[in-house]
Amino acid sequence: MKLNDHNSESISWFVEKIMFKTVREAHEWVYSSAYNEIGYLYDGYKTIDPKLAYALLYELVRSNTIHERRHEVYCDEELIEGTLVYKVWVKKLV
Fold this sequence. Notes:
Blueprint: E1 13-15, H1 23-32, H2 34-37, E2 44-47, H3 50-66, E3 71-80, E4 83-92
Helix pairs in contact: 1-3
């Protein structure tokens, strides 16, 4: 599926405001919070912290690799009002 084929208006987004100094901190935050909610409470995650987007993307792909594949995983970035926003979202497999 191409990015344009997925209607981003149908995605329920969580917008994260927190930024971290290290990838380790971001990974711990994602693993304890966003990773457990994406695909269940929210379809997508938006952040201005690339470390958070990276950590979430890593964990979602890792989960699909280790366990039975549950989601198609997507990522993109968007310039909104001069700020680069990183987006990670999933689509459940049927």
